[in-house]
Amino acid sequence: MLIFWSWVFLLLGVVTCALIAADVRRRPQHMAIMNVTWPITGLYMPVLGWWVYQKMGRTARADQGHDASEHHQHGGHEHHGDKPQWQGVFVSATHCGGGCTLGDITAAPLATALGFTLFGSHMAGHFLLAFVAAYAFGILFQYLPIREMGERSPKAGLLDAIKADTLSLIAFQIGMYLWMLIATPLLLDGQMDAATPEFWFMMQIAMLVGFLSSYPANWLLVNKGIKHAM
């Protein structure tokens, strides 16, 4: 039964990702990195990701002639009318989640293929590779919009990206790890095998848990002025 639901939710994630990607192509985001972030969000938020994208991220098409009146940029981040803070923080969390998810997706097959271990534990080895890759992509996802604004030097932009994303990224990974620590022995027979659909279904859930655990961190960073609500 688990393999059935694994395929169902994985396919729904792929379809949601594809629908968002197709829509983003026709309605490009003001911040270029969100053209990548929103489809990635669909991977771990099957169906729900499409609704969230429509409500919080979708821009007007340029040929509709009212893009400027409905959506505008402020401080390099896009705003949709009078978006409440919780929505701005929510979108900021998807931005963090996009980098983390891409890193986790990259690291998992590598950990399985290499049989990488840490202190003799394959799970610990997987977590280490996942953190390194997630951190690299997460900082990149923050750095690119900062450089896009052109207001900071490369070094200053990198430092700003590290300050803005480190806490939220760690919170995301902790949530993901906690779920995998529970799911691996209970549902995966103790094996983290990236060649199975069951593993990716658990990772899909883990990424959603990571998103939820990163939300308070993003709220704190926004309130402290370290990070902008999007």
Automatic annotation (TrEMBL):
Residues 85-227 form the DUF4396 domain. InterPro entries: DUF4396. Keywords: Membrane, Transmembrane, Transmembrane helix. Residues 63-82 are annotated as: Disordered. The keyword Membrane applies. The chain crosses the membrane at residues 6-24, 36-53, 124-146, 167-188, 200-222. The keyword Amino-acid biosynthesis does not apply. Pfam families: DUF4396. This is Uncharacterized protein DUF4396. It comes from Kushneria indalinina DSM 14324.
